[in-house]
Amino acid sequence: MRPCEKIYQGKRGISTILGVIIFVGLLFSTVIPMYLVMRQADTIYDKKMFEMNRLDDERSREKLWVCAYPTSLTSSEIKLKIKNRGDLQVKIIRVWINDEYQTQDVVIQSMTEKDIGPFPVSLQSGSYYAVKVTTERGNVFTSQASLYYYDIWYTPELSISVTILNTQGQYRIKVANETWDSGWWDSKGIIHDDFIQTFNVDIADVYTVTMERKLSGMWKELSASPAIVEIIWPDGPPLAFIYADGNKIK
What we know:
Blueprint: H1 3-61, E1 64-70, E2 77-84, E3 90-97, E4 100-108, E5 113-120, E6 127-129, E7 131-135, E8 140-142, E9 147-150, E10 152-154, E11 159-165, E12 171-176, E13 185-186, E14 195-200, E15 206-215, E16 218-221, E17 227-230, E18 239-245
Parallel strand pairs: 11-18
Antiparallel strand pairs: 1-2, 2-5, 3-4, 3-7, 6-9, 7-8, 9-10, 11-14, 12-13, 12-15, 15-16, 15-17
């Protein structure tokens, strides 16, 4: 082999090594960092998706009962009674009255209730006042009571709502005060799920609610019966609620 050929082959070997070094350098300086960035982006995306799914789950589990009522029949202020019927703590961040809102920072623990307010309103005879609350998780809950003002406050929802839980049977319910009773409301068949029955009443008063279940052809009183409930409108909500376990019999 000629001396010049040896020199040429040596240079070619050196260039090959340099090419490999350059390729490895490019690999570490571009491809691998790009791969790491993409992996980090996937991790951030997965984290965001997990947080969004968790928020959606928590949002679906929020269960608030909201009822607005005036502080008196002619008052220019209203209050809200809020019951948290869910298993999560809920934070109220806004109270809406028609198209105006007031910022709040009220936390209501699971299975508790709280009165908030009073909130000022601009009174105008013949007006309807829509009241709702917004939670930190983005849910909106509307007052169960409709409020109208005709020189005095008025609501058509003067009523008692009876909820029987864990049901699978036939039930009957009666609401009464000292001078009036609703008569028996009969489910007329087997109830296979929780159910709610609402009884309208004419005046704010103390009422007795009797609840019975039919077993072996006979009516048996539930353990929660008779339930005593008072409607104190306008000094409180025009709605009263009763909850009873349909499987518990006296």
